[in-house]
Write a structure and sequence with these properties.
It contains 10 helices and 20 strands. By secondary structure, the chain is an alpha+beta fold. A 5-stranded antiparallel beta sheet has the order 5-4-8-7-6. Helix 9 packs antiparallel against helix 10. Pfam families: HATPase_c (PF02518), HisKA (PF00512).
Length: 491
């Protein structure tokens, strides 16, 4: 786009453009034709006109003898022979450029050989002030752009540096989190950290086992120091606040201690203590009653031997005293029997099977319950037989932990043998070691890493309290069988 009047050389042609209001007038001169003497267009006058209207300082057409045509003050124009730059331009035949100062004006001189045979050159000097102005603008733009680029570079560096710091901090936090998680997993009780809204921050693998059931019972943000039942087990909950610097958020640590076996053991111990107290009371009562009766009996015997009284009457007294003594014995035995519940073991086992069927189905364990139609009644508290079965069935379910095989089963059988009722709990889960059979019912012994060693100990204590028996059988088939025997009465 041509913004002002201008001139330029190209292919031995001089292009001169004059800008009008709405159009541009362009003159094209054949330099060689002009150099040959054809100046019919008054080239010299036209050069002066262009000089005055454009940014050119001068136009010079010269040869070795001097100036042929020119504009400007030619007194200061150097000859070709005296100027090495002009000599080189004449010899090369190509365009040559140089910066000069002419009459106090800075310019750019362009030299072109237009007729080598006649040693003629054309020199055009353009005013360099606009060029310098443009260069200054470019320079300032370069400075501004450099500052912007430097600013952006610093910003990018700071972002990358901060990102690196964030990555390092994040890695440290992840490392610390893994350490805490490792410590948590080493605690053989459910542990969880949560915020004030009940959102879980960190938990261990034992908490995973009770999480779903806990949420059904109680939300985390409503937990207190308390004892709650989760999945048929009793847990004591202990809460502790966690203070975090530079934050107003509230975090809590909760530890769940399984007290099921401990509570059952305490119940057994209380029941044993109560039973012992009852037995002592009964023994004392019998002693207090029998002593007078013995005295009466001895007196009656003496009366009989002396024959001072009516023998028949005294005999009746003696007989009645004997019957009374017998009745007291029967009464005491009846008290012992009535101190226990009379339950239908068929119904209790059926209820327990229905209770566990949902859980076993979810874990792909086949629960087989063989309960006969003939009804058997035991003098045992329902809660005790329930605790026994819960413990054995839970152990059986846990023995399948992390197993993904098919054919898993748990069998519950009820059968009669002479005057005993036998309950059988059989499963094909993880097998108990043969050397553990004799120790499995001892207090504190457990095959599980997280076990308390109280479950089977409590089971045996409850069974023995009712004069029952329990044994563990490990057949060659790879399963394990618990057999429980009670004396029964049929109604």
């Amino acid at each position: 786009m041509i913004r002002n009047d201008t001139a330029f050389l190209r292919n031995n042609n001089l292009f001169i453009a004059e800008k009008r209001d709405s159009w541009i007038k362009i003159f094209i001169y054949d330099i060689k034709s002009v150099a040959a003497g054809n100046d019919s267009l008054n080239f010299g006058a036209f050069l002066r006109r262009i000089r005055d209207k454009t940014n050119t300082i001068y136009f010079i057409w010269q040869d070795l003898n001097g100036i042929i045509a020119a504009t400007g003050n030619i007194s200061r124009i150097s000859s070709i022979n005296s100027d090495t730059f002009l000599t080189n331009a004449l010899r090369s035949g190509s365009y040559k450029y140089r910066f000069i100062t002419f009459e106090g004006k800075k310019g750019v001189e362009i030299v072109k050989c237009i007729n080598k045979d006649q040693n003629q050159i054309l020199r055009i000097c353009f005013n360099a002030v606009p060029l310098y102005t443009a260069i200054k603008k470019v320079f300032f733009m370069f400075i501004i752009l450099s500052v912007l680029i430097l600013t952006v570079a610093i910003a990018i560096f700071m972002l990358l540096y901060n990102k690196r710091r964030i990555d390092i901090i994040t890695q440290e936090n992840l490392f610390n989190r893994e350490i805490i998680k490792s410590v948590f997993n080493g605690i053989e009780s459910p542990v969880v950290i949560f915020d004030g809204k009940g959102s879980i921050i960190l938990k261990n693998r034992y908490f995973d086992e009770i999480e779903d059931e806990l949420i059904r019972v109680r939300s985390l943000d409503n937990l207190n120091d308390e004892t709650i039942e989760i999945d048929k087990r009793l847990f004591s909950v202990f809460l502790s606040n966690i203070d975090v610097e530079n934050t107003e958020k509230v975090y809590k640590l909760a530890i769940f201690i399984d007290r099921t076996d401990r509570i059952h053991l305490e119940e057994v111990e209380r029941e044993q203590k109560r039973q012992k107290e009852n037995e002592e009371f009964i023994a004392e009562f019998a002693h207090q009653v029998k002593n007078p009766l013995n005295a009466i009996s001895m007196a009656a015997q003496r009366l009989l031997s002396s024959r001072k009284f009516d023998e028949e009457i005294v005999g009746i007294i003696y007989e009645e005293i004997s019957q009374l003594n017998k009745r007291i014995g029967e009464f005491l035995e009846k008290i012992r029997e009535n101190s226990k519940d009379k339950i239908c073991i068929n119904d209790v086992l059926s209820d327990i099977c229905r209770l566990y069927r949902i859980e076993t189905d979810e874990k792909d364990i086949k629960l087989l319950c063989n309960i006969p139609e003939e009804r058997y009644y035991l003098s045992i508290k329902k809660i005790d037989i329930t605790n026994i079965m819960n413990n054995l069935i839970k152990n059986a379910i846990e023995s399948f932990e992390k197993e993904r095989r098919e054919g898993k089963y748990i069998k519950i059988l009820l059968e009669k043998k002479e005057k005993s009722v036998v309950i059988v709990v059989e499963d094909n889960g993880k097998r108990i070691r043969n050397e553990s059979v004799k120790k499995i019912f001892e207090k504190g012994y457990s095959e599980k890493s997280s076990g308390t060693g109280l479950g089977l100990y409590v089971v045996k204590k409850i069974i023995e309290r009712y004069n029952g028996e329990i044994e563990l059988i490990l057949p060659d088939t790879g399963c394990k069988i618990f057999k429980i025997g009670f004396r029964y009465g049929r109604m």
